[in-house]
């Protein structure tokens, strides 16, 4: 490890509790994007983060990026926060990204701890529970911890740092691509490489560097029938029911074994090469790691490589929910007049947003016609993100490899991730940058799920990792 980092590492150890309190404050702000009831909380989170950056010496500001329609109303999109610290032409310039918005969370969904209160496991495991703890407030706070350590120690950062934090990632990063394009020759000019910490280890023991992401297409099947909800005793058996049509259509998308039923989609997938298979075989991973992450043995197969490919390099289709149906506690004998079925497809190289959407719409339109229903059906793409892969031989990856070895005492796995961060491809394509995904959290953190958590050790060593990565980046040759 670069000798200059020693004081930084010592500071992190001495201020562990302070850093946890910073994360606790961030988690306490329920910045749920995509829900009109949380607009003020998202704005409060943006303002709090802005003031944190300014207090740490960052030249930071909020930027408006337009409006969107939310629950039928035109509202401002959450602002993008940009910041810069250092402008030395003799140093490399690193661009970092994170998002301050979070997924919805309700205690009645099955949480064992308050959703928006950072709760440390009373058993002493080191787990810290709370929405956003790992996705993505924990990593952002780790970067703030790095800045604080250098400010308090009176040390300059080893690199120039540019920051971009958004508040709409959990809902497709709407308009962020336009903002990046508009600032390509402005704020983002001069960046040498980029680091994003918004993903996770494959397991609970082995750190990793991630060089690929699946993309995503998120769809709605909208089935509309009568102009009002109806009494099933009066009208049941007399009309085409929208819910019945929808359930049948959704059953035509994927089998219980995960096989996607949309014709033509499999034909787009690139064949697996021997070299690619060897990379998957080398990853430190066992099917038991997924068992631990999901709380049971529900894997489709016990074969390691097949499971990894199912997560990283093959497409998947998941059914997410039905809107418009009765879902409250108790009984209600209603025939809903309009329902929306929600599902997504994870994209891999060769599967583009357009090519997959064309297949999906064609297939579902044909299947609906087979029903002979008098209802109306529309298939809509909500949001999409293309898949992404980076050059993992780039000097940024080499620097992160060295930093990981120094902080964790072991070499990282090189992985592709099953999740989607659509903006990754925007940064890579628009700015022409190599993008490194450097995770802080573990594979069992439960992002987007109940009892989302971040381990105390990952948070503190993650802070060390991000800081050490900067030092290695400064020292390594291009």
TrEMBL record:
The Peptidase M20 dimerisation domain extends over: 211-369
Per UniProt, where does substrate bind?
A: 198, 231, 333, 346, 420, 448
Matches recorded under Pfam families: M20_dimer, Peptidase_M20
* Chain positions recorded as Mn(2+) 1 binding sites: 135, 170, 448
Q: Where is this site: Important for catalytic activity?
A: 231
**Annotated catalytic residues:** 101, 169 (proton acceptor)
- Record keyword Manganese present: yes
Q: Which GO terms describe its biological process?
A: proteolysis
Which UniProt key words apply to this protein?
A: Carboxypeptidase, Hydrolase, Manganese, Metal-binding, Metalloprotease, Protease
Q: Which cofactor does it need?
A: Mn(2+)
What does the record's cofactor remark say about binding? Answer: Binds 2 manganese ions per subunit.
Q: Provide the residue positions that the database annotates as binding Mn(2+) 2.
A: 99, 135, 198
- GO function term, MF aspect, one: metal ion binding
Family per similarity comment: Belongs to the peptidase M20A family.
This chain's protein is named Glutamate carboxypeptidase protein
Origin species, per record, is: Dioszegia hungarica
